[in-house]
Predict the 3D structure of the following.
Amino acid sequence: MAKIIGWLQLKNMTLLQSFIFLCCLTLIMVMAVITLEFEWAERIRQRYADDSSVIGWVMPSLVTMVLLTVAVGIVLMALLFYRWKLKEPLGILMKASEKISANDLGFHLSYDSKDEMGELCRVFENMRGQLEKNYKALWRSAEERQQLNAIFAHDLRTPLSVLKGYSDFLTTYLPAKKISEEKLLDMVQTMKVHIVRLENYTEVMNSIQKLEDMQVLGRETDMHHLTSLLNESARQIAGQYAKSFDSSIAADSNKIAVDSHLVMQVFENLLANGARYASSRVNVHYRFCKGFFTFTVTDDGTGFSDEALQKAKLPFYRGEVGEAHAHHGLGLYICKVLCEKHEGGLQVENGSDGGGKVTASFFAELINS
């Protein structure tokens, strides 16, 4: 029976088709057995036609055997249906549910069947994959938030320590008038600088929170129109640093769907970084392939140090640059957050010629023009 069902590829039938097939198969088998039972009863009746005691129990026995045959057929059909259509997928789904309940999403569901149970397993696998993706994003966000808070707290210690030291100093010596007016004004000015620094840090943290909560609004746009806007912005930024600018493009479609404002924000940030550290030239290569819009900013500067390659995308990282005090070290971190909000990413490396190379990618749904 199992070989017959396998040969007929029962797994490729829908549940209804399988049920009807098993009903027909069971009905044929039951009718065959009942026919044999009637033949047996007829032979008994003919053999013992003159014996009324034997004839008396033949009919009740026949009815009982027919009923038992029908009951066995129904049970057999149910067992076969469960065995071939329900047991394996239900077992897979039960194990998957237990793993999900235990927050274990590192598994895959696989059930090779074209029926409703196979489709249910595929839908369940899609749900598991989406849950895994969401959990990873949530944990990554939580870890980055924890890291951001730790770095923020670390950077606050210096201005707070300075303010506390000056406060203690003024509390001790100001009542006794042991501080000259010039010294007092100098201390007040220094305290004011650190207070402004604290205000800037607070504003930066608030802006990062807003970035993480922002919504990405992807709209259809013309590829060449978008790159023209980016190139115009790049020329102005490069001109401010007295650097030359050049661009190239490779695309398999002229229509893409992106959040232009978000892309522009990332582009201007990366272009400004490239122009700042370039010796004389900044290049941008645009690319649209396999549903992703990317641009790569390269410069002819000294490139990233080994430490910068590891930490450039971390919040508040400023490296060893002399002008580090002029910014908070959030440029690449903000670009990373925005790219990930757009289901893309940010890659930092050194180019083959030694300069810096930063690639930003954005998921851009392909729209047939």
